[in-house]
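Title: Prediction job returns without error message
Component: structure pipeline
Severity: low
Priority: P3
Assignee: unassigned

Description:
Job completed but the reporter wants confirmation the result is attached to the right record. Sequence as submitted:
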Amino acid sequence: MFRYVRGAVWLLAGLIATPVSGATALQCVPYARIVSGVNIRGDALTWWDQAQDRYARGHLPRRGAVMAFRPYGPMVLGHVAVVSKVLDDRRVLIRHANWSVPGAIEEDVLAIDVSDAGDWSAVRVWHSPTGQMGARTNPTFGFIYPGKAQLRPFEPDPALGASVRFAKADPAVWEQAGPAAKAVDESEGAERLAGLGRSLRKALREPRLETDMRAIQFADAAPSGRSLRDIIADVKRDARLR
């Protein structure tokens, strides 16, 4: 019983946690810039246009490419992630920051193309706190290709904001889910994930994430005794920062 209660508290705290001092959380932009080597600055929503005439762009995933997300819903500034591995024509692994939890780094987690045309214009992304594919469909601009495809290491830097390595997935496990994922009828378009059979849903949830214990400390450090109004305000603010 305690384990489940703690799990629920951890999830809620992780979604709203911000350092008490008011320091900013690591954003997706500096993380993607360092890991990919794509030297673009400014909000994520501007990367696609800024890349024109500077970097090749396209709609096919490649290792080391930056996946540029369009602003959508609460994600008003867009988002950028780096492709770490291409599993097949509909599945890639990505590395990104400030997605599931403010400031958290997620490495080699799954992103699935759910676009009707198979052009990666709409994706679903793994949500580490719940251990499953996110419910939201996210529109994208496409991929920005660096001059030299290389995944660079990211070292936490307080100057870039508070961060925690939330989870790292084993890429081999995602590959084991491949046969089930390929069984999806391509004609189902953007809504096909909603109708997946039990075996496919199990395959997508199978990976065991190695949670960094610092993530728990990060979540447990959330201020306690706060009102529901304060919590809602934090969630809205964090959504805007993403």
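Comment from assignee: result matches the submitted record. The chain is about 30% helix and 25% strand.
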